[in-house]
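User: Okay, second chain of the day. Same drill as before: sequence in, structure tokens out.
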Amino acid sequence: MATKPDVLVVVPTRPAQMKILEETYTLHRYDEADDRDAMLDDVGSQIRAVVTMGFRDFTREMLEKMPNLEIVGVGSVGYDAIDVESCQAQNVSVTNTPDVLTSDVADLAMALTFDTLRGLSRGERYVREGRWRDEGQMELTTTVTAKKMGIIGYGRIGKAIAVRAEAFEMTVSYHGRRKQMDVSAPYYDDPVALARDCDVLMLACPGGDKTRNLVSREVLEALGPDGYLVNISRGSVVDEPVLLEFLQQQKIAGAALDVFFNEPKIDESFFTLDNVVLQPHCASATVETRGAMSQLVVDNLAAHFAGKSLLTPV
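Assistant: Same drill. Structure tokens below.
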């Protein structure tokens, strides 16, 4: 009987897919190890594949302890915490999970837009706290229909958000690395100019060094006191201390955030603000989508070890 390939589990997949992995491979549970460095020293030379997520660091130092590594299966569309360059230099393939999470992420992006403009979470708290009974009607909110949305990052998710926004008669424009010739939405080569010309600034771009603090003080100043920020990309895209300042001083109207700079240990200053909607990085967190993402990790590993083309290589 052929020996099962050794796989290091840095972040586990969903239960159904973990069962497949357990049946197909020899798993080493890095996520459960008391001494992770000792585990890598012990089994690192045996590891041929890694299963992880894009938010969990996979560093050059870890890679160096796995000289026979062949593939890193990332169970998310983002992979900014993965040292892809070092992997590729060592001929280690990296895969991610695009497409399968697009709809759910776009849905939550629009839900957050409605929440922050229409005050849905705020209204729910207003009722629960008895304030409707004691204080009367809550203050008026802001309509979504016909607002201008500027999207930073016009890939699969950005385009899916645009389709949903246009269904609510919103006008969409975008900023990205380059103008896309096959789309009709207006392109801005400067995020400051985009922020100045929109009511809702939607962040749907990748994380990493190239977009770090892209939403700067200048961008937030351009968004202004009537503008709203929605972030379903990565917390690193926003200069978070500046965002907190603008929210506290009401220099922007509000924000809705699914991601943060130091999640899950986020700055508790956010907790005291009534003009920000907070979510626990859950845009793709449905049973259906997380299952599809996990299955894509499994399928990429299966393709690799069968000598077939990878389904979603980075």
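The longest strand covers residues 47-52.

User: Thanks, on to the next one.
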